Every structure is written in structure tokens, then in C-alpha cells.
Give the backbone structure.
Amino acid sequence: MDSGRNGKTKEVTKMYETTKNLMHMAKKQHTAVIAFICMDYTMARAVAYGAEAAGKPAIIMLYPDHVKTFHTAGFAGYAKMAKELAEEVSVPVGFHCDHDFSKEGVLRTAEAGFDSVMMDASEYDLEENIRRTGEVVEQLHEKGVSVEGEIGHVGLACEGQETQKDLYTKPEAARKFCEETKVDALAISIGNAHGAYKETPQLDMERLEAIAEATDTPLVLHGGSGIPDEQLQEAFEKGICKFNLGTDYLARYYEAVEDFIKESKEKKDPVKVIEMPEFVIKRLTPYVEERLRTLCKFE
Ligand SMILES: [Zn+2]
């Protein structure tokens, strides 16, 4: 409860919001919500508080490999952490789990408390992708969990795959995929790729418009690091509702850790390591705030 200007108390809305609702809010306003890859509490906290500073919604996003291979958190612990952070701030914040490639993986993540997951069967042909994704959607919708799928294939920037047009999403395939699987969001390939681009990418805006025309399902852009802001803003106006940002954000983390080590070298006190998360958070929060203010039009 909060005290309103007229002295009456007004209900403060709970600020945790589902990724599905955040994407629909974005779609209505012809903008996108940014999903930041967060490997740990330090990154997630900077997203929640950066969002609050900007006065814009945001999404805390886990890349499952960070848990499975690098042990940065546990799935259930991560879900609780993200929700707790979302409830600390006064802007809508959601959480989501990025690329899982198997039914077992996605079900495990949902079981751990995530209300939004991604089932990526884009390595298969369209029919098999529909079969695998549709099966997961059916099971998870019963549990109130939303599912993002992918068609076409978002390749690797280090291999220059953003220019490989045979990987691009076809509008007719997008329509069929969304109708048959009933996914809640669709990741598309329109000249974007994961990781660091060697050359400035050029998004295929005509294709984006045709896909947005073909389906009402909120569209998602992966591989956001390195795409010029003007292209991103245009893509948001033309139908991208969620935008995944990973590589750039992780690079900021790395730089902040480097600076912390440089600055604390003289002190020679190993216990100083406990000050590192707060040092990094102070560096990451303004980055998140700036990205949200620059790219997201939310009123
Ligand atoms: Zn991705």
C-alpha cells in the first residue's frame, strides 16, 4: 500500500509481470521489451534496478547453459531470485528462460518455476519443428507457462550466418507455425545472428513487415548486440515485441570485473572480493537504464 497525493491509500500493483503480458504491452505500443541475459544475481539486480531508474519494463533472462555447464545458479533458485527482484521495484519486470532444445529441458525449467520458456527446434525442418514445439506448448499451456518458438534459424555471427538468406524466416511458414503450434512468441531470422558481428548487420525490414502481417503472435529478435540502434527502433515499430540482449551485456560485466581487479590490486586484501558484486552492479545499472531509455518507447 502506498499513500496517494490526496491522502487516501492506493493499491500498489505487484510489479512482477509475465513475459507474455510484457510482450503484449509492447505490441500495443509498437515497441519492444528488452530481455537481458543475466548469468547471476549481479546482472539480474542491475536489470531490475536499471528498469526502475528508466521507468520502463524489462525481462531478466536465463541462458540455460549458464546453469547446466557453468553452474552460475540453480534453475529453481534463479526463478525465485528473479521474481524477488521484480517485486522489489516499481516497474513491470518479468523473467524468461532462453533456448532449450529438448522437451525434457523445457519441462524441467518450467517445473523449476519459470512462467516463460523457449523451445528451439529450429534445426529441424518445418513439420518436425511444428511437431516438437506444438507438443511442448500443449503441455505447458496447461500449467500456465508460455512458450517461445523459432523458425528459420538464428545462426552464429562469428560465422557470418546473418547474411545466409536460406536461414531467414519465411512469412508463410511463420503463419503456419504459429497457427499449428499456438506458441506465445516467435523468434525470427531476418539478418540477425548470435554473438559478435564481423560487419554491421542489415535487418531485412520488408521481410519483418511481411511476417508481422502473416501472424499476430509477438515477434522476437535474438542476436541484438551490434545491430545499430536506428535499425532496432525501426524493427520495434514494425513488429518486434521482445529483443534479446546478451553479448554486449556480458562484455560490460567483464570490463567491470577487470576494473575492479585493477583498482583493488594495491589493497592486497583478499576479503575485498566481497565488494565486487556491488562494484559491478553500480557499473551495469546505468548501462541497462541507458539501453531501455534509448530503445523502448513505453509510456
Ligand atoms: Zn537466441
